Amino acid sequence: MEVIKTDIEGPVIIRPRIFGDSRGYFFESYSKREFDRLVRPVDFVQDNESSSTYGVVRGLHFQKGEHSQSKLVRVVRGRVLDVAVDIRKGSPTFGRYVAVELTEDNHLMLFVPRGFAHGFSVLSENAVFQYKCDNYYCPESEGAIAWDDPALGIDWRIPAADVILSDKDRRHPLLADAPELFSVDEKLY
After folding, report:
1. Residues acting as catalytic residues
2. Are 87 and 178 in contact (CB under 8 A)?
3. CB within 8 A of 53, min separation 6: which ones?
4. N or C: less crowded end of the chain, CB within 10 Å?
């Protein structure tokens, strides 16, 4: 696998080696040994999958404290814009984000480390999104920031009239008003 650094320390794009022939293709979507060597040691404990239609925006979510999570995300069908926002107070990149288009054809993955909020928008008619987490979901530790916070300036590549949100995702605070974010000095691993 190839690890592609982003403009922000922590999140990285992963391009797997794809072996193709007349039958189709094969690639190793995850190897703990290679991931730990090339990205960082992480013990993923849970795999999740979601299916969404065009215009759905999920995010920007994170888990706080001892339940914080790293994620390794990819698309197995369709196309999404995946976003990781640095929410570590005191970080030189606080409030900045990484955005990458993940598709069933490019097979790219994004590693979202602890200390980042995560979200995605669905750009295709349908998308199946898979992700690994290194900590179990804990509802009491949920945190989120507004997907459309003007201070972040994220272009989700969906016209505002076409955005589909959950009721919960409509009510998240702006980054400036979000309680209990992370600190750049906090030991997250």
Report:
1. 61, 131
2. yes
3. 122, 125, 126, 164
4. C
